[in-house]
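#random but structural
TW: two for the price of one
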Amino acid sequence: MLETSLKKYFNFSQFRSGQKEIVESIMAGRDVVALMPTGGGKSLCFQLPAILSDQISIVISPLIALMQDQVDGLVARGISATYINSALSFDEISQRLSDIKAGKIKIVYIAPERFGNHQFQKMFASLEVFLLAVDEAHCVSQWGHDFRPDYLNVRQYIALLPKRPIVAAFTATATPEVKDDIIERLALQRPAVFVRGFDRPNLKFFVRANLKKKERAQEALRIAKSIKGSGIIYAITRKETEELAKFFKVNGVNASAYHAGMAGDKRGKIQNDFMENKFKVIVATVAFGMGVDKADIRFVIHVGMPASPEGYYQEAGRAGRDGEQAFCILLHSKSDASLHNFFIMTSKGDMQAQGKNWEDCKKVIDVKYAKLNKMKEYVGLQTCRRLLLLEYFGDPAVKNHSGNCNGCDVCMNYKWDRATQSEVDGEKKTSKKRVKRASGEIFGTVLETAELYKQGYAPQAIAKMRSLGVSTIFNHLVEWYDAGGEFRIEDFLSHKEEAQILKAIEKAGSMEKLSPIKKYLPAEISYEQIRMAIAKKKRG
């Protein structure tokens, strides 16, 4: 029974909407196209069948960071998985290829560019592959918002295999036209097509239009300060990410810029620090869009209108992947469209320089303008914003939509001039899944962490499995302890450290704020340990 395997390998008691049907189709040997929202559980749909098979499965993924996060999560669950990409040394790649040949690996993640490597081609042609899963499959389509030419090679390399595997394509951002293009370009054979749950009710959508540049920065700052938790701010240009990050830091919000112009090791450190909540806000270009896999992002603010609904929904969808309430806010300026027009015309020149004919260029340009016009429509809407997105992606749930989602600024009749009374205020809105300390019960994201801890997983492993920072997992466990849970604080806090913290509390004169306590302690004692000592003292 699939639910038994789901519980065994992923600790979930039931599938999310649409997942089981996709898994069943793959297990029955059918090719699949699955269109599901970011945060909708796509990865489980190919990971579970891969785990249940006796043969190796290959996952094609476009970003190194995503590969590493997913492999770390699988390994933490005791599943033999690995990845091969350009970040590895020659010796590391050779060792991983040897492990694959020896049958030690169940799932291998690769970038599409890897198919061009002769050594990999040779090994690939000798494998009996159960499943070839193509993640972010919209990258294969020239009508998609993130076309990657290397994805076009996937089809020809499938032909190298001694036996054709099941081929499953997954994306969060495909329109019906892109879906058809994926089927053709990957040569899928009578695929089962699933369009599932683009609606994510925990996300709240807001737009503020026609702001001047300075007003927009100030509004982004105000919103970020008003919402508890970490968030992403997207800007259109690299220069603007740097300017905004500096503006935030000057005004008391710990922030860091992130863009493709930075060295890879620097980007990696910023991303790891963000995962561990070492700063509140990351200000990024779309290069960060598919790269972040942090489940507890509470807000995504676009300082600038994206070029397409696909790009917007994928980036906004980074918020609230833990199922808790989160905010997706677009701050628009009249100059946004002009900047995108410039980018489109530049891309036209690039295509012509590559030798594409006028007709092909016009098709691509027309599609880009159609997407940009749809974003302009989204910004100017006087009706439900969520409904426009669901219609755009062809979500079948549209036929049952009332026209009022109660989760966007239009449907909520939100007025931006109520600055300090904003609904965009994470302190004032409580989630249905919030911890209930009074009754000794816990729910939602804290409960998921507690359940894994009770099964014997270490906090570091839980963090990998749940796509959260280790500091966040410790905070969950302390909340659980506060509610009566059996978190063994002594495993992470020695008697000496506890005594030091208690003495620091006396010097600080209060337990309400951690920073005054921290200044009396050595650097190696963490805020998480301070929280543990306080929780233990309160519990007596």
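TW: number two ↓
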Amino acid sequence: MTPPRRARTTVCLTLASTLLVAAASGCSLFESKPDPGDAARALAGGLSKGDVSGVAWQGTTAAKANAFVASAFKGMSPVKPSVSVASVKLEDGSDRATAMLASRWDVSASATDWTYQTQVAMTLVDGTWQMAWTPTILAPDLKADETLDLTRTLPKRADIVDPAGKPIVTEREVSVVGIDKTRVSGAAATASAKALATVLDIDPAAFAAKVSSAGAKAFVPALTLRKSDPMLAANVARIDAVTGALRVASLQMLGPTRTWAGPILGTVSEATAEQVKNSNGTLRPGDEVGQNGLQYRYDKQLRGTPGLAVLAVTKGADGSVLDKRQVFAETSKDGEPLKVSLDQKAQSAAEAALAQQTKQPTALVVVKVSTGEVLAAAVGPGAEGSTLALAGKNPPGSTFKIASSLALVRKGATADTKLPCTNTLTVNGRRFANYTDFPSNKLGNIPLTTALAFSCNTAFISQYQKVSQAELTSAAASLGMGEALDLPFTGFLGSVPATDDVVEHAASFIGQGRVEASPLTMALVVASVMKGQTVRPTLVETAPALPAPATPLQPAEAAVLQQEMRAVVTEGSGKVLAQVGVQYAKTGTAEFGTTNPPQTHACMVAGRGDLAIAAFNEEGKSGTTAAAPFIISFLKAYDAK
């Protein structure tokens, strides 16, 4: 039995020798397998970057896997996933493992992200963990012919509504008229543009240049007309006769008419490139946003919050969508209506009162005395859509004598206090005079009531040494004028600045010098007098209340002013307003410009019942002739509705 023993000894020696050699060389026959977690983490990092070329695959190549990832994630741009390894399970005694990947997409500014987990089968081949390819590694149930698309679901923009909740600005049908360059091109497109511009009464050269510079397949809008616009009805045949002309029906957020409170309400249109850039991702090209007025200031409330959806999309060879399914969504939130104080009857009557004033700027503002609500604020066509009604800055002229009267009352004057009314008065070399047609029988020492009723300039200016500029400023503030308050709309409450200049101080008594006001300002002055306390303007229902002035108007003070302003209607320069039931009034003119004689603004304020009204005309001889007609026209239209 010796030979077997020798053989067994030989085997043992050989194995021992091998182990010694291995130990001496630093190698081991029992090295551990590579960690599958490292391979899983490499895959997670590659998916996060959109580059899986460093991953070993089974069933595909790195190039094909990369191409699929790029295609599948392209529609999610610029958002990228954040992928991490949730777990790795190694099968005991096997070269197989399973990794669980956790993906997170920060698809919106909300706290909610799109999250999910996917499973990856792994096999150890020649010392390398290989990933079994399947589209579901990218997203659950994703198919080989699907890609992921991130789409926004836009909310419905909310209406601007009146106090009763009835829409003022809402979606209204329009027709966008323009040139479709898929139907006409080259010189013919330019000729068509000029022909269409002529029909629409816009600049032919400017529109032709716009059409010429547009893309070969562009639709170039020329004018947007309401469905109810007479211009559209009258010119449909002429528009359609122009080669390449197209009328596209659409819905736009619009007020009752093109001019109806336009400067206040504002407009809505597609966001500009600059607005998109400055929105920090909130806006996208094509989004509709407020561009001015209340639409701009309250755009976030009115626009609402966009939602989104992640779709798994199947497309044909031509890029057309064959099928799609939703895999994640955030619901959009519609905008919230903005309730404003504008009364539709009053605003329409104000618009009608100024409709023919095409040559120069005009404005009319109506305030509800009891609440301060702005019921109407209109500008005529000559104002070209400016903010004149609520935010104009012009000298108020003799309508400011209401504030001057209050300052005198606070110095002890009564309605019967006599003031010297002379033809002229010189202060530090500056000659002041009454208006040309001032009645001579009212000259002399006259009561304060008469001075206001007939608007004697010299009577008020004569008090410049008794009443300081600070006291004038304080009196104006008590009537709601001159304070820089944070208004929830574009508005101006007037200014009565301090001055050390004696002539400027004297001019302030008659609303000139550097005194400024808007029609809104003067309507508030009248409202304050009528109510017997300072009235603050209200336009937006949800806006916080404005603070009271440092020195509020007292009822006893207001009673004197009411007596004076009644006399304007019963015996003075406002008698013309008695026909429409006006109880309180004041006329005003204010010089401006450099001509000799100077031009004059014309103003008129009036009060009736619960309405305080201010009218402004950029140029007119007197408030009686150039502003009072607007008030008369307004009240007649208002009463008739």
